[in-house]
């Protein structure tokens, strides 16, 4: 009797030890692979092009991809619950158009900013509610949201609206000096803050654990007594909020609002999540992975810019090939884990 | 009567008829005969919806097996780009034989694209939405590479006929779509193929254990979807007599999925309705035509579409009907 109950106790740690000696935890493999790829791409860039190693090239990645980063972080939450949010690109365009229109109407910026952010969150919450209460599939519900948000944006104005508000141009022109000769914009700082907050929420809060639990199996989560409905609605609310924040960053970047801004961002965000190791089946993934995914996509564009004589179409093809490689790798890793 | 109302296709069909009636009253020519062929807004709707019908038809089969194909728009762009590139190099663009050859090559390329999707899904076992996302992202880049980022214009009579020609008084594009629908209806409803598709969609594992070549059937539906998308791409590019790798088939995957869902095919697979898909595709096209016909300003075009789509999706959700109308009904019963 005693020996039988003793065996599992001694077996457990031994197995863990062995695993640590041979290989890293299987759930970190996709993220480590992305990190490795990023390092290889960066080193190749330094070896091939002059000035590629300049710290500003790396820092500019955050500035140039701030919008995508913020949107992809929101998407990460949704994908980890096993859902998808196709409306983010349209919410970006609605936000930029609305921001530009309201600022043109001399609304104070301190009213406009919370108003558009709340609107984005409300659109997300509405989609989450439809998905949860009416059991409409996320794909279809957020597709309807895409049409609705872009329809609203086009209804407000089909033309590009310039933003001449002082606060907006001040933020747009503001430079932050990180080190000698390395400057960045407030957009990049905001994006990095969003990543840090999201990573902390996902890793260390009860809500974060619930998100993973629902993605693993929403039925089991429900039977465990977790607030499945509330969590799911909040997740889409976060995605809507992030999309609206992305829209605000976009409007700061371009100092204009246009209904076609943000077109296709939903796909870029999903692709960044997948490259970053977030499983589209739900239940697995990290915000850090998404960050790496966005960096990889940004670095491809940078390398193509440095090369200079390459067709811009190569960006899409390379992203497609990378998607393929990572998806197949994920597939092999998850198969082994099972 | 009750069984007709409860049919999944009842509400989409009602909306389609209402839209067509609105159209008949608002457009100055609904259907007339001109130059020996039919003419008018009804014919425009049929002609305009043919590409969407083709794409949605392939999508229906894919969704029936529990998959989804996001790459159809990109395949449309590739097929148009290949066709225009080859026609441009023909010595005589108006010779029918070579143009038919080019069409065959373009469709062949599309079939290969479908085979790629199908292999990823069935052999490597990648989730369909991600597997086809790859080609959706990369495909448009490939099309841009083929056309070298330019818009290739062609002046080929036979090629333009695919989209703008008439045969027996009906638009050729619509006849192509109708033939495809008839072929698929015949194959899925008169042979065991439809049953096998639904069985694979219901449970691939159970189908395999029952002796069905689930893997082969899954690959086949993606190949068919690719072929139909290629055909739709030819219709699109023949209509504008050029290859536009950026706007060809842009967002058509979403419209096609919408047409399938409106037609009562569940996205989880295991059941499908070809007739429903055709109604859904024509409904979407009619909606765009009607919006213009009844004088809704163009900037509200998409908004109007969005409202109709939201209403349709909600009306098809059993939970929505139970929660909203169910409450209403019980109160009535209590009052009575």
From TrEMBL, chain A:
Superkingdom classification of source = Bacteria
Under the heading InterPro entries, the entry gives: ABC_transp_permease
Q: Name one Pfam family in it.
A: BPD_transp_2
User: Which spans are transmembrane here?
Assistant: 28-47, 67-98, 110-133, 139-156, 188-207, 233-252, 313-333
Membrane topology (UniProt) = Multi-pass membrane protein
Please provide the record's keywords in A-Z order: Cell membrane, Membrane, Transmembrane, Transmembrane helix
> Which subcellular locations apply to this protein?
Cell membrane
Segment forming the signal sequence: none
The cross-references to NCBIfam families, in alphabetical order and at most eight, read: PRK11618.1
- In Swiss-Prot or TrEMBL terms, this protein is called Sugar ABC transporter permease
Tell me what organism the protein belongs to: Actinoplanes couchii
Automatic annotation (TrEMBL), chain B:
The protein's matches in Pfam families, at most eight in alphabetical order, are given as: BPD_transp_2
**Tree of life domain:** Bacteria
Q: Spell out where the chain crosses the membrane.
A: 40-63, 94-113, 120-139, 159-187, 217-236, 248-268, 275-296
Q: Which InterPro entries match?
A: ABC_transp_permease
Q: Where in the cell is it found?
A: Cell membrane
Tell me the keywords, alphabetical order.
Answer: Cell membrane, Membrane, Transmembrane, Transmembrane helix
Per the record, membrane topology reads:
Multi-pass membrane protein
Query: Does the keyword Membrane belong to this entry?
Result: yes
Recorded protein name is: Sugar ABC transporter permease
Per the UniProt entry, what species is this protein from, by scientific name? Answer: Actinoplanes couchii
